[in-house]
């Protein structure tokens, strides 16, 4: 049942809805033979929970404000989940190191990521517990309310994609630092986005790689093989298998 509370965007007392933070389309990709994906904590041994429609929060937005954000969510899904096949590979020594995607609407895509970070920061859902924009949260809300994307350095966005998206899961978002500059990392099925939450500019080595108006979108390549992300996903999968086998009264096998 919907709640009657203060909407965190329009600040009016309204019935709140089940608002997604990461759009449902990114979770839909994780379905296996129509079986809903499972949510796991960020450490092995956590209790798994099915997510038939992804993760939502019924304490943050009214229907009208959710619809204000919806076009940006739709555009983010369109670019990453539908248009990525149009991207041109960038190679170095016969290896794809990045992709380039032309004709991307900076305003809509930037507002998707700005609203994603804002919603995660205000959410009380355990999945987003490591996201807190602190003094930047008010500015994020103002940008969402005004449909203002800001310049490319304000909450700068850097995108990457795993080489084998079929092997990826949805880990919880968390803080990250590049050259001591603060970012938050979000997983969007086979993609990862890093959103800067820092007044300082992006590090020099990323200066040409973040989302910018009037330029193609650059998406970096990431490998799960041997990476911390890959190892964590493997440990979580092993833990989930062991949990299911214990419920069946069987001895856990190898993953």
| Rg | 19 Å
Strand arrangement within the widest β-sheet reads 7-8-13-9-12-11-10
Whole-number tally of structural domains: 1
Mean pLDDT: 83
Number of strands: 13
What features would you highlight for this structure?
single chain, alpha+beta, two-stranded antiparallel ribbon, 5 helices, 29% helix
Brief sketch in words of this structure:
This protein has 255 residues and is of the alpha+beta class. The protein has one domain. It has 5 helices and 13 strands.
Commentary on this structure:
The chain has one domain (about 65-250). It is about 30% helix and about 25% strand. It contains 5 helices and 13 strands. The strands form 4 sheets. The chain has a 7-stranded mixed sheet, with helices on one face. The termini are far apart.
Topology summary:
Elements: E1 3-6, E2 13-16, E3 19-20, H1 24-28, E4 38-39, E5 49-50, E6 56-57, H2 63-82, E7 88-92, E8 95-101, H3 106-122, H4 137-146, E9 157-162, E10 174-178, E11 181-188, E12 191-196, E13 217-222, H5 228-248
Parallel strand pairs: 9-13
Antiparallel strand pairs: 1-2, 3-6, 4-5, 7-8, 8-13, 9-12, 10-11, 11-12
